[in-house]
């Protein structure tokens, strides 16, 4: 997202449009330089600074207008805070107010030394040749970090004033006052300390006393502020340590980052919570059976799905065409005809929690037959990973032929099953066919012709098909090795994490039961890889974010307020502040998504109409009531 950095001096304004690149630095995209002419030369400082922002928006309108995410405007002038107060607008101010309403932006204070380039532009020497009601030009929300980031001079003044209040620094300060009289051992111990301009330095870095919230304020500047962007442990430590030092700075910084509420919600751990633990291994053929379904295939007769059944011991797969609307008794009948009549009854079944596999009928049947059913954990399909890994192979195989005839995949299914079972499985080193039967089947038909043309044609066709099948299977398996085989499905539920939730029971080392709210209609047992222990800093509040409420089967979050609106291709979108979430997670939503927040929407629209009416009257020179 491009970011303008405007500045104004007595004679001119300057601005740089920059964008953050892959190296994390802002790189310039364009420059603006204008002299003040005519009446503009007589503008006071806050008007000139605001004009620099206005001209930046006008000059780079094509890049900055109507952005879904807020534009960051960097400025080194506190004079803009003048516009936070309610003021009497003249005609020029009303025009500026209307122009600013078309931009989604926030102002970030950046000290002059950090924004020297626009200063250099605006301060070039060759540029030296019945009242309306009060309104607010720049409301508080556009100032992203005015209250958050303490100016450098003010911060150092506080450090200087607090040095003598930290008892741990008392001996060092006394040594520096009478350095010549100190014994050699003390001189060696404190040789890296020095005083300069009332500040205590250690190896060239300012020592921060342990007084009040000084250290916490610094950590917030170098971690929480928009200029820092919530970096990780090491990067935050590096930023703070460039200028400041105190004993235990590493531990304090790491704890600040670890206990940061936003970071705990948005960062996904780079390590696995526990080592991968495979399922219990079977000791014989068809002792453990995994099954799953591939659904929503092109309709072929009454079939639009495939039931995938796998023997966990040999990895042998059975593919059965079926309907997505398969009922539990029908599933049991398919098992009877394709598995149980050939290989006997399994001791354990493994499947996901779909309604076809997890219902009262099958549970009662399993109990009667002495079968132990196992289901994958909430949002953790890896526990049913064997059939999950078969699915991409089968779908890729069928996709290879759907280009010819998309609705004849059922006749290809026996060939797909044979091709899969005839290929060597990586976990056994043998083909599932050989692991089950002890011998390899013949793949190539005989070349000896017969006296029956139809039989010859069928044999030739089958030979061609087997060659195509073999190529398709190996292509799919090669792709799986590169990007799919062995990789679990992404376990992340949403971009943000919910909670904290209370642990009500430990199912095993891999799963825990949580106390969820009644509105969260999901299974309450979770894989441990999705969970992390909350770290709380007593000095900071950790807000419990409300989980979504399920309305008509859809998750909904509560609207706290609406902060802005804009038109996109004839359709209005509203910027929504969600209850329990920070402003950085505001989103643009169309009107139809706010049907359960009608009162808030009506209130916002009423306020916007009132502001527009007031601005219009101000332009005509009339009074606003």
Automatic annotation (TrEMBL):
Coiled coil regions in record: 152-179
Task: List the molecular function annotations (GO) for this entry.
Answer: aspartic-type endopeptidase activity; DNA binding; DNA-directed DNA polymerase activity; endonuclease activity; metal ion binding; RNA binding; RNA-directed DNA polymerase activity
A GO BP entry is: DNA integration
Compartmental location:
Nucleus
Q: Can you give the residue ranges of the Chromo domain?
A: 557-607
- Which PROSITE patterns does its entry note? CHROMO_1 (PS00598), CHROMO_2 (PS50013), INTEGRASE (PS50994)
Entry's Gene Ontology cellular component terms: nucleus
Which parts of the sequence belong to the Integrase catalytic domain?
A: 274-440
* InterPro entries documented for this protein: Chromo-like_dom_sf, Chromo/chromo_shadow_dom, Chromo_domain, Chromodomain_CS, DNA/RNA_pol_sf, Integrase_cat-core, Integrase_H2C2, Retrovirus_Pol_polyprotein
Q: Which keywords does the record carry? A: Aspartyl protease, Coiled coil, DNA integration, DNA recombination, DNA-binding, DNA-directed DNA polymerase, Endonuclease, Hydrolase, Magnesium, Metal-binding, Nuclease, Nucleotidyltransferase, Nucleus, Protease, RNA-binding, RNA-directed DNA polymerase, Transferase
> One matching Pfam family, short form?
Chromo
Claim: Protease is one of the keywords in the record: yes
Q: Which PANTHER family match?
A: PROTEIN CBG26694 (PTHR37984), PROTEIN NYNRIN-LIKE (PTHR37984:SF5)
What is the protein's given name?
A: Reverse transcriptase
């Amino acid at each position: 997202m491009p970011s303008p950095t405007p500045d104004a001096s007595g004679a001119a304004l300057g601005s740089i449009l920059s964008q953050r690149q892959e190296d994390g630095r802002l790189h310039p995209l364009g420059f603006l330089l204008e002299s003040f002419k005519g009446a503009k030369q007589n503008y006071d400082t806050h008007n000139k600074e605001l004009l620099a922002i206005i001209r930046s928006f006008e000059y780079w309108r094509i890049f900055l207008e109507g952005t879904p995410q807020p534009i960051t405007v960097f400025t080194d002038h506190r004079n803009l805070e003048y516009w936070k107060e309610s003021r009497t607008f003249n005609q020029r101010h009303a025009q500026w107010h209307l122009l600013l309403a078309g931009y989604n932006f926030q102002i970030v204070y950046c000290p002059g030394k950090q924004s020297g380039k626009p200063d250099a532009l605006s301060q070039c020497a060759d540029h030296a040749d019945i009242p309306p009601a009060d309104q607010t030009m720049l409301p508080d929300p556009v100032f992203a970090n005015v209250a958050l980031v303490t100016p450098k001079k003010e911060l150092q003044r506080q450090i200087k004033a607090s040095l003598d209040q930290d008892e741990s620094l008392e001996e060092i300060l006394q040594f520096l006052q009478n350095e010549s009289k100190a014994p050699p051992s003390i001189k060696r111990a404190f040789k890296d300390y020095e005083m300069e301009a009332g500040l205590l330095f250690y190896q060239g870095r300012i020592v921060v006393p342990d007084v009040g919230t000084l250290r916490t304020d610094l950590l917030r500047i170098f971690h929480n502020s928009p200029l820092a962007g919530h970096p990780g442990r090491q990067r935050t430590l590096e930023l703070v340590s460039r200028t400041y030092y105190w004993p235990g700075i590493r531990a304090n910084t790491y704890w600040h980052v670890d206990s940061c509420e936003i970071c705990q919600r948005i960062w996904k751990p780079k390590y696995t919570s526990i080592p991968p633990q495979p399922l219990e291994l079977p000791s014989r053929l068809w002792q453990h059976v995994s099954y799953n379904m591939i659904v929503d295939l092109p309709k072929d007769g009454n079939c639009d799905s495939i039931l995938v059944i796998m023997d966990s011991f040999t990895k042998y797969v059975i593919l059965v065409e079926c309907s997505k609307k398969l009922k539990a008794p029908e599933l049991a009948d398919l098992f009877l005809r394709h598995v149980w009549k050939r290989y006997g009854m399994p001791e354990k079944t493994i499947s996901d929690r779909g309604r076809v596999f997890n219902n009262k009928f099958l549970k009662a049947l399993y109990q009667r037959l002495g079968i132990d059913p196992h289901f994958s954990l909430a949002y953790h399909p890896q526990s049913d990973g064997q059939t999950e890994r078969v699915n991409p192979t089968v779908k890729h195989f069928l996709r290879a032929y759907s280009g010819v005839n998309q609705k004849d995949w059922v006749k290809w299914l026996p060939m797909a099953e044979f091709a899969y079972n005839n290929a060597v499985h990586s976990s056994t080193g043998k083909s599932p066919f050989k692991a089950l039967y002890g011998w390899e089947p013949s793949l190539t038909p005989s070349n000896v012709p017969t006296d029956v043309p139809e039989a010859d044609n069928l044999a030739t066709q089958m030979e061609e098909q087997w060659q195509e099948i073999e190529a398709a299977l190996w292509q799919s398996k090669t792709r799986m090795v590169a990007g799919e085989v062995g990789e679990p499905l992404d376990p992340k539920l949403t971009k943000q994490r919910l909670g904290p939730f209370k642990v009500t029971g430990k199912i095993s080392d891999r799963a825990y039961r949580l106390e969820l709210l009644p509105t969260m209609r999901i299974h309450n047992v979770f894989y441990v890889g999705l969970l992390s222990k909350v770290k709380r800093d007593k000095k900071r509040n950790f807000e419990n974010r409300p989980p979504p409420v399920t309305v008509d089967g859809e998750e909904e979050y509560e609207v706290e307020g609406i902060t802005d609106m804009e038109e996109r291709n004839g359709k209005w979108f509203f910027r929504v502040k969600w209850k329990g979430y920070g402003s950085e997670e505001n989103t643009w939503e169309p009107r139809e998504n706010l049907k359960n927040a009608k009162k808030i929407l009506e209130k916002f629209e009423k306020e916007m109409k009132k502001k527009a009416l007031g601005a219009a009257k101000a332009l005509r020179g009339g009074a606003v009531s």
